[in-house]
Write a structure and sequence with these properties.
The chain is mainly beta and 140 residues long. The chain has strands at residues 3-8, 17-24, 26-28, 33-41, 47-52, 59-64, 69-72, 83-88, 93-100, 113-121, 129-130, 134-139. The protein has one domain: Intracellular proteinase inhibitor BsuPI (Immunoglobulin-like).
Amino acid sequence: MFLYLLMLSASLLRYSMTLELVLPDSVHAGEPVPITLRVTNTGRKPAVLYTHGRPTAFDIVVSRSDGSPVWHRLNHAVVTSVLQVRKLRPGGTLEFCDSWDQLDDQHRAVGPGEYRVIGVLPTDSPSELQSPTAPLYIVP
């Protein structure tokens, strides 16, 4: 099993940060899918990240290969309107972890096939941070 690691640099470049989405590239049907969003300060100076919620709100969006939505981690979640200011030293990392139980937003099991996963970190400026799309294969 390989871990799929993606980095986002376009909107974070001016902040010298990367957003990584880490997950397995395939899992067996019914297995939990561990997913981590990792924000790293790749610059030489401390960087400030403004996040929402306590604990920090982050979303994971799973879609079918045709783009139709399957599951959102924050579906029906209540996020407190608390702004957190996080200072990251050079090389500093914040990780946000959860897992997907292979149920859709209506709590029905999804079947084997190809899925797409995106990580989202709501921030204050300039807008939410979104990872590139990662493929996920559920095998029987």
